[in-house]
Each structure stands twice: as structure tokens, then as C-alpha cells.
């Protein structure tokens, strides 16, 4: 454990507060700004977002683990690449579960003066429980990409990797943080996420990595 339970709780509560504030007071205005300037920002955002796709890190982890386990045998490096693989799989799974649970519509719902905004999870309370669950499932099935805004999967990946690099190379903490922040913000430029989605991805990415780290600490720090 890198931090105390109190520090973890404070971290979570702080980001949850930021997410809540952003949802009610920030998300719409920023999303509408980028939606109204698509020609200026979207292509750039889409390009930068490429570096937040998890397959790059999954592939690197698999190749690195295979190389150091079977070719140039180095168990310490093999475990570190295995650590990278685990954090991407674990954080990605949690992100996917949360996306389907919350069912938040992307900023696309605000295009052309639209007002579609919010979470499926917190809507349709006038329906019965079974009917609400059926509507939730059907909507996600019909438009899985549209209703998968929260949390940002790219940001989850980026901050999982940021935490990974910060653990192994703490000397360059601010460099990793700067890179992760810039890349995560590209999701706003691409009109694929709200600000609160970004902060939610930060929580999932960092805590997932710290959890896996607590289970693998000895293996990735031990000199074989």
C-alpha cells in the first residue's frame, strides 16, 4: 500500500466531488464549446486519442513478458511487463462494467441543439424495476457506443499506465502526469467525453493499478 486508508478515502472523495460539480456545472458548457468548433478540434483530438487506446499497452506487455521470460531471461522485467498486462486488463474490465451500469450518453446527445444528457441508471424511475432494467439493457444493446461515456476508457488506460510508470520510475512523476493529462484531455477535443468522464477514468485507472501493485509488489521490486 503506497498510501494510508485515510489518504485513499480523501483521494476518492475529492475526485467524486469534482465529478459531481463538473456534471452539474461544467460538462455541458465545455462539451457545447467543442461541439460548436468541430472543424478546429475534433481531428486533432481523434489523432491524440490514438495514444490512449489500450491495445498498444496490452501488446507491449505481452511482447515484453514473452521476451524476458523465454528469450533474454530476466524475471524482474518479465514480472513488470506482466504487471502492465494485468493493470490494463483489470482497469479495462472495471471501466467496461461501469460504462454498462451507468449508461451515460456521450456529448453527441447535445449536437445540433439537442438536450440528451445524463445517465440511464438515474432515469425512468416512473417505470417498474423490471421495465426500467429492460429499457436500460435494450438501449445499451441498440446503441452501445453512444451510451458508454462514463468513465472514459482512454483515460482509464492512460492513468493506469501513468500510475505504473510513476511506481517504477518515480523520478519522472511530473513528466508522466503531464503526458497522461494532455492525452486524456484529447477526449474532450474529440467530442467523445465530458470532463467528469475524464475524472472518473482517473479514479478507475489509478486505483486499479494500485490494487494490482499491492498484490505484485514483491515480484516487481525483487531482484532475482
Descriptive report:
The chain is mainly alpha-helical. It has one domain (5-52, 87-221). It has nine helices and no strands. The chain has helices at 5-25, 27-35, 38-49, 54-71, 75-102, 129-142, 153-168, 173-189, 195-221. Helix 1 (5-25) runs antiparallel to helix 9 (195-221), helix 5 (75-102) packs antiparallel against helix 7 (153-168) and helix 7 packs parallel to helix 9 (195-221). The radius of gyration is 19 Å and the shape is globular. The two termini are 22 Å apart. The mean pLDDT is 95.
Structure, briefly:
By secondary structure, the protein is an all-alpha fold. The protein has helices at residues 5-25, 27-35, 38-49, 54-71, 75-102, 129-142, 153-168, 173-189, 195-221. The protein contains nine helices and no strands.
Give the radius of gyration: 19 Å
Number of strands: 0
Major sheet attributes? none
- Succession of helices and strands: HHHHHHHHH
Average pLDDT value?
Answer: 95
Structural class: mainly alpha
Q: Helix fraction? A: over 70%
Counting H and I runs of at least 4 residues, what is the number of helices? 9
Distance between the termini: 22 Å
Number of separate structural domains: 1
**Which shape, going by the Cα principal axes?**
globular
Q: Which percent range describes the beta-strand content? A: under 5%
Low-confidence sequence ranges? none
Keywords for this entry:
mainly alpha; 224 residues; single chain
